[in-house]
């Protein structure tokens, strides 16, 4: 006969998972950089025993646990080519601005687009390595790095140059369609082709495109202008 004293095994399991979730979230919040405007998504690992926390939605972490941790500061609107759009870069990005400007001019891709991609990909951490093996400021996979002649992904200038060339190639391949180019950068151009030259139905890729576009709009850049040299 089931005892009426104390919680059932099922309730104890739910309570334990709740405690584990709270502890994991507390750890994430403790380590999260102040001022970060990311969201937190949660899910369970395939074995059902561990939690998966992510700053973007995916199959492993489909549920929104916490909304944006910090509201993005308001930025006054700027016009095409307005230097104020570049001046809105975060402080940690300032040291990369001359390098990015030079590469953008050489490759003929907007520096704003390069900065928007770096911000989402690595948050300006030149030593960043993703769980899937993407490396450096622009988070290039080894095969993509080799394709664009990148020998050492942790050399900042070389990484950004290869990533900018890949962005330029994607923009040309998709006839200037920025959203498809960004989807290709995240999921690979063949995934976009297989999806009928549309953004693939991958939650991560769809969220990635939205975030980069939002970064550009936050800087006062109209997405139709991002491929123009110097805008």
Please, could you describe this protein's structure?
This protein has 231 residues and is mostly helical. The protein folds into 2 domains: 58 residues, no CATH class; 143 residues, Lysozyme (Orthogonal Bundle). A 3-stranded antiparallel sheet has the order 2-1-3, covered by helices on one side. The termini are far apart. The N terminus and C terminus are likely disordered.
Which secondary structure elements does this structure contain, and how are they paired or packed?
Elements: H1 9-31, E1 40-44, E2 51-54, E3 63-66, H2 83-87, H3 97-107, H4 111-121, H5 142-147, H6 156-173, H7 178-187, H8 189-194, H9 203-218
Antiparallel strand pairs: 1-2, 1-3
Fraction of residues in H or I helices? 40-55%
- Strand residue content: 5-15%
Biggest pleated sheet: 3 strands, antiparallel
End-to-end distance, in Å? 74 Å
Q: Specify the CATH architecture of the largest domain.
A: Orthogonal Bundle
| Individual helix count | 9
Unreliable stretches covering 5 or more consecutive residues: 1-7, 28-38, 67-87, 227-231
CATH fold group of the largest domain = Lysozyme
Count of individual domains: 2
CATH class of the largest domain: Mainly Alpha
Order of helices and strands: HEEEHHHHHHHH
Total number of strands: 3
* Rg from alpha-carbon coordinates: 21 Å
